[in-house]
Protein 1
Amino acid sequence: MYTGVMIASQHRIKSKVKGNFVTPHILVIVSGTNIPSNCETLADAFMEGIQERTEQEIHCTKICLRDLSIQHFSLENYHTACISHDDFCRVQELMQKSHGIIFATPIWNFSVPAHLKNLIDRIGAFGLDEETHSKGQLKGMPVTFIYTGGASVIAWKVLLHLTTMHLSEAMKYFGATVIGRHFEAKCMEEKGKFGLVVDKRSESLENMRRRGKQFSHIVRRFAKTGRLPRLLQLRHDAFTWAYRIGNRIMYPVSQQQ
């Protein structure tokens, strides 16, 4: 029983087909540990934006990593079929049924909470092919990241986006398409004191709702056709092509080392 998985609202998990329409599913993964937390508050606003598009049904599921029990990554877990019998099996099931994923996380000491990095490592078990563990299996699935931190926007642009890039690069490696990354700066009540502040930032919350609305449009198209809007699809195809070429070049070189 996976009691750690929190359902944001009463939604069915299995995709439902109505004519030619497949009900899109979006998974929201929150790695903040505080209750309440800034990243979760922004994620909730993002989900509100998703639900604004009411002309077609869309389902969201939110999980909070603080409530889950997921074993640390090891080679024993490196199987397409989850055999660990922990909460990750449920997370894997949700991800494989989703048409889009949102990661909401704080930035601590230039990186993200360890349980999120562990989750990313565990995703490689099914996010990569079982034979070579080098080919992404997420088929272009749209993904977006929401970051919060105490630093300024300048610190994000100069340094923090580099120290957290491993998350987005890993998801691209698994075959996903990263739609965007948002950093919410100066999430502090005052100097040296962290706490919930974004609930009072109406512009930030509205920005999240707007982004959520845009994301839902992309996910709906992906759920229906298996493809992204033209420019995003070209970007995904270009990355996939470049990675395969680079892999073909580097593999023989590595064998000679």
Protein 2
Amino acid sequence: MMVAMPVDPVAVLYGIAVLGFAVGTYIGWRLLTDDPDLAERGAFKYLLLIPTVAGVSYVVMFFDIGTVTVGEQTLVVPRYVDWVITTPVLVGYIGYVATAPRKWIVGLVVADALMIVTGGIATITTGLSQWIFLGASGLGHASLLGVLYFVLPRFVPDDPTRKGLFKLLQNHVGLLWLAYPTVWLFGPASLGLMSGVGLSLIIAYLDVVAKTPYLYFIWGNTKAFELDESVEADDADATAEDAPGGSPAV
């Protein structure tokens, strides 16, 4: 008589997540190869980092590698390594779509890094220290949302396709990311109203939903970057007209 082995729901979902990120990697590859000129204007090469790094991190977590215990708390290190690499790309690219100045894109990345690092520290601390780091993480998150919703819209070109893509990415990140601190607060490292298994399942789901559809939205709206081609053409014509004794080439 065969004895059925218990199924680890976290391992199953991690395996599904890897497949989800494989789809995201395929989409990233298509962005790079469908139209190389458009890929250059859209800076799509950076987007490939998102599903690739996330997929590798979930492979590592599938084999239960990288979890460390500090006191009574545990930290899934690959998850935070994934986030500290991929989430700056997610938010920084929204700034790129908005054509925001470099200082605001850097500000987004710094706020994001503050949110991730201090949130990780809050996971393995207790008492007052935990709430101090949680507050710092919340400050980073609030700063990120402030730039995302009140600063970046000022720089978006007056083009319907670019505005549409910006709004889609802005809300996808801005609204979905509100779920992460909410779930964490109910988890074992905070209020303890949710088991570690439940927390892992929800976060894995959120990670896939946050990253693979993000790339799909860009893949379906690459026309938004055709604006850059017309701007470059106009700049070239203006340069030719300004050249001594010159006129635009026909």
Protein 3
Amino acid sequence: MTELRNIEAELGKFRRRVLVATAVVLFCFALLLARLVWLQVVRHDDFEAQAESNRTAIVPIVPNRGLIMDRNGTVVATNYSAYTLEITPAKINGTLDEVIEQLGGLVEIAPRDRRRFKKLMDESKSFESLPIRTRLSDAEVAKFAAQRFRFPGVDIKARLFRNYPYGELAAMWWAILGASIRVKRN
């Protein structure tokens, strides 16, 4: 016996299968589009903040500076360690002026410090750490350390500064000594 095929019924089944497959594919694309909108539009601010805080930065390591001595072993320049208050403009919350005003309540920031900081900002990039105040006292360091959580992007760093025990006298002495050496050689 030969089996009679119902072509119309099979064609109807095929069309239903194609419609179901098309609906499933369109549904998957709609899910992908919805997820894209969710990530790119709705959660944009969250991800932007995470990306900003996750950025890597090259932090230079300041080398130790040695003592400078003359030929007789007399120390002409020494080093001393002091704390500096530094701001990384890209990491602060709020405006820079607001943060500086709030810092002024904890640590004395003179107008000349503010001018120097603004000048440094104009010359550098926003992700670089810039000193707003140098040579902090231990009391100022302690005050800031207790309130540090209020100031993201603001840090205290230990730096080495040069100290010239003879001040300008050493420079004049070197100039005189150099002149006398030149005279003796001639």
Protein 4
Amino acid sequence: MKIGCHVSIADSIDKAVDRASLIGCNTFQIFTRSPRMWKARTLSDEEISAFKEKLGKTDISPVVSHMPYLPNLSSSNPEPYKRSIATLRLELERCNLLGIPYLVTHLGSHLGKGKEQGQKQIVNAIDTAISGLDKYPMLLLENTSGKTNEVGSTFIEIGAIIDRVSTDHIGVCFDTCHAYARGYDIATPRGLTETINEIESRVGMDKIKIVHLNDSKGELDSRMDRHNHIGEGNIGEKGFLNFLSSSFKEKPLILETPIDEIRSDKDNVEKARELYMWANKVV
């Protein structure tokens, strides 16, 4: 079983490896820079070496990077769109430097221009960002909760984007909270089967490389993107037992759950591991 969470890079990016190890992760996710700023601090050679050296002394794999929050790959506004593509390119290059194999990206908002236009913008953004790169991490498109104007809330939409980009080095990050909020009832056997069938027909389960394992504060089909502690939301313990007994259990599971007085990251990782073992009757 591969399980971990999103960890901080505060002070130096190599500290993320230390934090992941303390929590008991054997996979983890990071931002390579501040997620709330366009400008990114250059990674020093010392940081890069320390990150790789520390990681090489663990059994942690894979490491996943996540795009910052500001870019909108679906935008038709020229200046923000140009900056979004430049940020995607930079993140691909930073992952190359750090040896990170996956980069997760949100697909953004079409800002009222329509899903078809949003998809065109995404395809162009990806093709432009990877142009001229000899190598780059696999780009993982994350399903959204389906808020107004969001692109990529269904696997029909995501499949259409994957079919149109100029690279095969692309996959999917499946977020449980987002899927549930969009109306994919992964908490029940029937709903989970229907979800997997849609993925198989439109994308392929082999394209799911990472799972963001999050409970949902919103109800089924609420379109509300609010994560909750594992087992404490509307998916619930029973829902996660159902989910973690399916083929999704074979994917690296990365938590993006709240940190508060209810539970820490370590507590949520342990809870998810407990449910996994229970679902699969691991002694």
